[in-house]
Please model this.
Amino acid sequence: TPTPSSAQVIVAPTSTPTPTPTPTPTSTPTPTVEPTPPSWLDSISQMVASLSTAEISAGESTLITVQLLDSDGLAIEVEDDFEMSISTSSSSGVFDAGTQPGQTVTTIITGDASGQTDYSDTISGTYILTISVPDNYEIDPVELALTVTAGEASGIKIIGVNKSIQPGEISDPIEVVVEDDFGNPASPSEPTEIEVTIDSDTAGLSV
Model:
């Protein structure tokens, strides 16, 4: 009887497959959607402005009125509060509700057809008031000219007496200026005599 043969069988261990990592989902950016302007804005053709008076005395005020007009030239009653910036070329001008020196923001309130604010100034001269809105409205700015005149004469100022002189020397001419309450050169309402004296026994004045 033949002897059975034997053989060794080596079984290699099976390797566990490495799991494939799950890709991290990328976030899709949310598109920015610009708000659609209210349809009533499409009816704006231009902006107009006026002054209650184009000339004021120093210390007085004028009323600025601003309106939006349609293509027929009619004032528009706004359906939402509408803000406008107003600025001045003057360094001394003051608005009724100024947010910063020399400028303010005026609002046409919902349902109204105009916005208003007061403006005053103390230094004489001619200044430009500019009313504007953000560029995206495509509305041209408006400029108004305002003249500020001196107020009533209220005092005098002598100019040219600060320089010292030597005995026997003649000083530079002195100037007497009539001013209003804010230092603007002013004219008396009628001819006025001004007496100038000097506190010295040896000095004299000549006209």
Q: What stands out?
A: The chain has a mean pLDDT of 83.
